[in-house]
Amino acid sequence: MLKSTKGMLSKAVVSMLILSSVSFYGMSSSINVSAAHRTNSHKNKPVISNQTKQQPVKPKAGDVITVSSFDELKAAVASATSGQTIQIAANTLDCTSQLVLDKIDSNITIEAAAGYTPVLDFTSFRTAAQKLSPKQTGDGYVGVRITGGAYTIKGLIIEKAYDNGILIKPNFNAANPKDTTNVGKPDNNTITDCVFRYNGDAGLQISGSKGLEKAGLDVRPNNTKVTGCVSYRNFDILTSGGNADGFAAKLYLGKGTVFSHCVSAENSDDAWDSFGVDTADVTYDHCVAYHCGDASVFTGAYDKANNLPVDNDLTIGKCSGNGNGFKMGSGSSKYGAQTSGIRNLTDCVAANNMSKGFDENNGAGTINLTNGMGFGNVKGDYVLDLMKAGTFVNAQAFKVKGLKQPQGGTVSIVDASKQAAITAEFNTAISKMREELRENKIPSYMNFSFWN
User: Recorded GO terms, molecular function (predicted)?
Assistant: First the structure.
């Protein structure tokens, strides 16, 4: 299922927003919850007043700015200039509003300080948002909103946003579609070694804007590089799990989107979704799509049945997501023609998803694949018959059922005597990832020996 539009707030809700001291970025609301109860005890770091007004950080070019609270982080983001690095020296930040990154060609890095794995916990923001808009989310409720370019985000855990964990997307003023003053330019952003979990939509989404497209403006995100990231147990409870992919590179995507050493696991909808991307190319290198779309995960039944620890952070609810692994395209829709770009995959695994493993989703185009492994996907490990094979080497599956090979490509069936060892190696990697996530660590990269 596709989330076609972000919800518009009613007049009553807007009135509440005004009365609740809401700040606006473009036309997207961003709620600010008072943080007056927090104190700043760290020396030699930017200090934020306990009053509503924040004191600006005034760094010099090339400086490393160290912060230890969400207020300090927002102030540093607002004041930082090209070439500067913001380091977070705290293991948890209480995120009370949306974090907006809107500088064009910023060349700004936001990363974990040495010895820390910062968790950007958006629970406070989500709680306030749920009171104001209990039936729908939207761009204004995303955790980290990137409309600018050349940002690098590294070593962070982003969790419990009401909508996406991170959204890379230009800004659109729905009230004045001809207003292009604050559109942004979301190109050349890099996300490295991050975790997106327990968010209310896709963990990380990269999209253009339907409104801008209708206005004749092509502001599609280009050259997004995502490396070493894990997207885990994201669930859009308000739409029954039909939107929360692990990684959504969809809807008016630009060129040069690359995922490397990423894992999408146990999200309510698809692991990866590239619906409505026209002729855009997407690359997946050493990526894993695991066990997405399983409704029993979001009741707690799956963990109980598999003797896993109780996940107290999990959103509990009714889930009916699609459950594809690498969903690489779409047919003709209101978002454009049938997709027809190139999909490049190297050393990629799709396992135990509730629908298809490697899925064209009625899209066409060319698939280049070297080393692919599909097993345990309920409706077929490879469903690619509308795509053409370019380089197509060592594509493997455990079963013939549901198999649809690309034109000019061949999928081989793994000998039954080898399947248990492959499954065991894979499950060991998944177990290690789960343990690292429970310990608030950035999971290790997965590399497998079963390609030969």
Answer: carbon-oxygen lyase activity, acting on polysaccharides
